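hey so u asked for the seq, here:
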Amino acid sequence: MRVVSISVNGLKQAVDKGFFEWVDQVSPDVICMQDHRMRVVELEDGDFRPKGYEGYYLDAENVENGGVGIYSRIVPKAIMMGFAYPAADMNGAFLQADFDSVSVASVLIPSARGSDEKQAEKDDFLDAFGAHLQKTLRKRRQFLFCGNFQTAHLVSDASPRHHKTETSGFLAHERDWMDRVIGEWGYVDAFRRVNGEKNQFTCWPEWAEGWRRQAGCRLDYQLATPGLKNIIDDAWIDMDTRFSDHAPLIIDYQLDY
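ran it, structure tokens below
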């Protein structure tokens, strides 16, 4: 099972840049897309679904501020929209597809750059999502939470530029939240489970002086429940492919979904 996570910063422009042609080449089984910035009624047009895939979507109340989607080669057993947190529903931030062997969710944590109010909203979201992650561990199935978490976990997950900047995405309490998820609660950072290479970034924000200075950070994750830990086969970031300021994250699992 090959799973792709990609934050597109607007699906229309990503499609114009060749997103679906790239999908044909990489041939994932499931694609978790974030920040599509479209209405569901628009997305249901066949022009916005790669050939051979089913599409499922959730839009944001403010269409320019989020939305998530899942493309799948097979029809899921069930689709879950949201996780009982109104702010996530309003921002179109959580969509889950349940398959026979695993549930896969596309997640978009809100960006907090720019104001204390946005930071408070992000912190509240992390608290609510953290509670959901803890409840999930009590269920008798395996889960993958894939998406843009708007936070670099470790020092190695961000370039030195971020180490010197007191900005959302690399704040101590945000990284502590990641510590709890991956350390205390036992979730697996699927990428780091099999890939220990240096300078593995998924995002190069313009404010951080962009690609040329390598001012990147790893904001995109696939977090797996502990039962999936030993079936993660391969993981890489396609840093040569850019449909937005995020690069696609691709992970292979020894799993028939």
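The longest helix spans residues 116-136. The domain at 2-253 is CATH 3.60.10.10 (Deoxyribonuclease I; Chain A).
lmk if thats what u needed
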